[in-house]
Amino acid sequence: MAGQVRPITLVGTPVLHAPCRHVEDFDAALAELVDDMFASMYEADGVGLAANQISVDLRVFVFDCPDADGTRHRGAVVNPVLELPALEDRRLDDGDEGCLSVPGPHARLARPDHAAVQGFDVGGKPVRVEGTGLLARCLQHETDHLEGRLYIDRLSARARKKVLKEYEAARAEAEESLASGGQ
Ligand SMILES: [Zn+2]
Fold first, then answer.
1. Lowest CB count within 10 Å: 11, 14, 76, 116, which one?
2. Structure pTM?
């Protein structure tokens, strides 16, 4: 299962800002997509990746992410449905969040500290992934992606503007160093 690394789509690309389609066929093409998603996620040093982050508008995400106890969880979920604790049982974790599609900046974003996702594995078998800590954040972040939502869409207008400004500055710097033959 050596997937191919594909380029990561960046904020502003239409495929990132529209809901993805349900997966109907659990076929070889889907397995190949998941392999490519893992390869692309590891190449980018991410803990999760949604299909539309490599330009495919299907409801699939992959993850390789520690939970609050430091236990590593790895898998792929197709057609995921997010489950959050009832409002009265919800505790918020206001940790930092970032996104491979908005490379550079991070921002503090409060999210429930416990989340689960129901869906299917790459072979079509039902799966449920439950997580705390970073994994809970990751499950919410990735299901958001499949709805066409980025984490910056959940920030205040002011915080969002700050993140986008930092992102643009980091990009301009990268382009400048590329143009001058730097690394
Ligand atoms: Zn992301």
1. 14
2. 0.94
